[in-house]
Amino acid sequence: MTALSMRKVEVPSPRFSRLHAVVALLGVLALLAALAIVVLLLAAHQPAAAAGVLAVLGVAVFIYLSPRFYAWRYVVPGLLAALVFIVVPMGYTVAISFTNYSSDHLLTFERATEVLLSRSNSDGAGLDFKLLEDANRYRLAFTDEAGQHYLSASFAPGAAQRVKAETVADEPAGTALPLKRVIALQEALKQVTAELPDGTELHQSSLRRFAASRPAYTRNADGTLTDNADGVRIQANWAAGYWQRADGKTLQPGFRASVGWHNYVRIFTEQRFLEPFLRVFAWTVSFAALNTLFTFAIGVVLAVALNWDALRGRNFYRLMLFLPYAVPAFISIPVFRGLFNENLGEINLVLDQLFGIRPGWFSDATLARSMVLLVNAWLGYPYMMILSMGLIKAIPDELYEASALAGAGPLTNFFRITLPLIARPIAPLLIASFATNFNNLTLIALLTNGAPDYLDTAVPVGATDLLASYTYRIAFQDSGQNYALACAISSIVFLMVATLAVVNLKLFKVGRDPR
């Protein structure tokens, strides 16, 4: 036997590597974080959400511990991310769109009812009081308008409590606490109910007075409420989302209720919503399509130019042309807003010096839309340029050499070789760019805020508003702040973008064998 065959082969022991230790530590931390989320959800009285988190956690633990599902370990993180950041928010948005959720209907039915039952009516002007210290406890001394004095039993500040006040002949002895001490004990005094000998209940109404009060509403056995002021019964109107009196008067606050397809019907039947919706939809589709076309055209032309071997300083040009993409949009867009300023902007100053004109970029609808297209093209072309440069590098040089032998020029090479060969692989990215531009809220919010606004619409909407910004303005700037209606519009936008994406994928035949 040779020395080589006699050499002992050492087999590494099956010990955990540092990578395994790090992965195990991250797993333990993720498990603890998930359990903490469950505890917080239970504390917030959300048992359904806590059960959902536990179910997902159990499935994830089973997959990572079972050898049969080894391949799924690499898929689960992506699926969880899609579930948490896409499916759940979209599902929540759709669910809200079937309710009347708005600034007038923020509370649940139970919470709105509790608010009504907590209200009280004050009877009379109340009694002056003094707070007397009795060791570590306190007493309340009252004096009515007739000069009658009352002294309460001693009490310790803390939880809600009822103390009885007895009639006394003379003003109670003792020094009243200064106002500073009374203010410090406000929270405790608000929980004290003082009961006079005749049964009248007193609650603190100001820093110096207690007033007689009684609940404004009483809950009945059948679930209705009674107005204690006039004895009128009040019923819950689920269609309107309010507690309503017999005469039709509603009580605030309103409560959330299911309204079915009402919000979707309003969008397409009420003129105040339909007309601006159609305008905004037409502009949104045009904006997304034109910006995708412009950014791709500029990017691919610059990519072809930068791949020209005879061009000197190509690396410098690449760096300079990529800079617009490197600067964050929330910095670039306000800069452009200043440049296009109608009075002090540098663009109008130059145009005034050269041609004697000062365009109203923010007051004219056509100019405002042109400005939006120009700014977004500036922000988006570097992305298309980088993608096109990579795809052009993958085209074989033999094709251009054969084209040169055939006497073809640069334009022929571009339209017959370059563009057809990069169109298919870049098609999904163009669709993604279209979807991004379709919902480009950041650009509109920072550049024009939708201006110039239409003057013939009942809802706030402008010539440069996209569906995303139109939805935002309905949700947060309209007088009613109708969140449910905004969610309905968002759901429609989601369906539109998804449908357009599927249609474009079918047209480009992405994912199919080109043969």
From TrEMBL:
Cited InterPro entries: MalF_N, MalF_P2, MalF_P2_sf, MetI-like, MetI-like_sf
Residue ranges that the Swiss-Prot or TrEMBL entry lists as coiled coil: none
Topology of this chain in the membrane: Multi-pass membrane protein
TM spans (from-to): 21-42, 48-65, 72-92, 280-307, 319-340, 426-447, 483-505
Location(s) in or outside the cell: Cell inner membrane; Cell membrane
Gene3D superfamilies: D-maltodextrin-binding protein, MBP, MalF N-terminal region-like, MetI-like
Entry keyword Cell membrane: yes
Annotated PANTHER family: MALTOSE/MALTODEXTRIN TRANSPORT SYSTEM PERMEASE PROTEIN MALF, MALTOSE_MALTODEXTRIN TRANSPORT SYSTEM PERMEASE PROTEIN MALF
Family membership: Belongs to the binding-protein-dependent transport system permease family. MalFG subfamily.
Record's subunit section: The complex is composed of two ATP-binding proteins (MalK), two transmembrane proteins (MalG and MalF) and a solute-binding protein (MalE).
Name of the protein this chain belongs to: Maltose/maltodextrin transport system permease protein
Organism for this UniProt entry: Ideonella azotifigens
Gene name of the record: malF
